[in-house]
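Deviation from plan, reported transparently: FE2/S2 (inorganic) cluster complex.
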Amino acid sequence: MIDIDAKVLSSEVLAEGLIRIILHAPEIAKDAKPGQFIQMLVPGEAHVLRRPISLMAMDAAAGTLTLAIQPKGKGTQLICSAKEGDTIRCLGPLGTGFDGNGAETIYFVGGGVGVAPVCGAMDGFATETSHAFFGFRTKNHVYGMTQAPCAVTAVSDDGSIGEKALVTKPLMEAIEAKRPDLIMACGPTPMLRAVQKIAGELNIPCQLSLEERMGCGIGACLGCNVKVNLEDGSWTYKRVCKDGPVFDSKEVEF
Ligand SMILES: Cc1cc2nc3c(=O)[nH]c(=O)nc-3n(C[C@H](O)[C@H](O)[C@H](O)COP(=O)(O)OP(=O)(O)OC[C@H]3O[C@@H](n4cnc5c(N)ncnc54)[C@H](O)[C@@H]3O)c2cc1C
Ligand code: FES
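Because the crystal trials were delayed, the predicted structure below was used instead.
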């Protein structure tokens, strides 16, 4: 983990309400793994908490990190207003990341801004028999479909791309046709809860990437604690920033 001034190589609209920023951050890119994130200092707001942002892609050779950011509140709006040539203080890589575990067939599931870390996971672990399932609001919100390393099925809330359905529909159909060895998912909580239920009922190993409000991002403040279930039936708290953001779905208590 290192704290550096990362140079903005480009910042452009990726989809409706989503900005793609490519950073030159070789010190972070060389150690980064799919599913990890960085803590970005908000430009001009050194006194406020940093914002956690997932790695959509990392290229150790080029020394770059690709991010997809929703300008939601003031912090992400200021980050997204950075221009080519600006620098943004970034701490990373942080968190545990996904673990391919040598799985032969992985089904990837992404919803909305959660598609970004799933793209990183696909780059790291997709095999020929793997398949990704993405859910978007409309066709204007679509991203991450081109240059995907495995087959992708997209659905949308309004039917303007793919079926008008929840992403769990094509996921279930694919599972019925061929059971995967592993599922990796990131997206809104209702989507994660539905994926967790499917994986639990069918006893398919599954990793979920969680989002939680964060303070330090490095495991020191306990601001991102979530309740997790232990194998012996008891429970404990874990830190999303340090013990996650990726958790075994059996552990997660929504
Ligand atoms: C591990 C992780 C990865 C993430 N990856 C991405 C990503 O790739 N792209 C993306 O667009 N968003 C991502 N987010 C969500 C993003 O961090 C929040 O949307 C952002 O911090 C909100 O800040 P804001 O200033 O825009 O909003 P505001 O609502 O103005 O923020 C107010 C306060 O709440 C905190 N806060 C609000 N929502 C969150 C949240 N979900 N997580 C942590 N802190 C929050 C902020 O730190 C701030 O202190 C990720 C969150 C986590 C935890
Ligand atoms: S954000 Fe401080 S412990 Fe996780």
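Residues 37, 49, 51-54, 68-70, 72-76, 113, 116, 211-214, 245 surround flavin-adenine dinucleotide (ligand 1) (CB under 6 Å). We consider this an acceptable substitute for the interim report.
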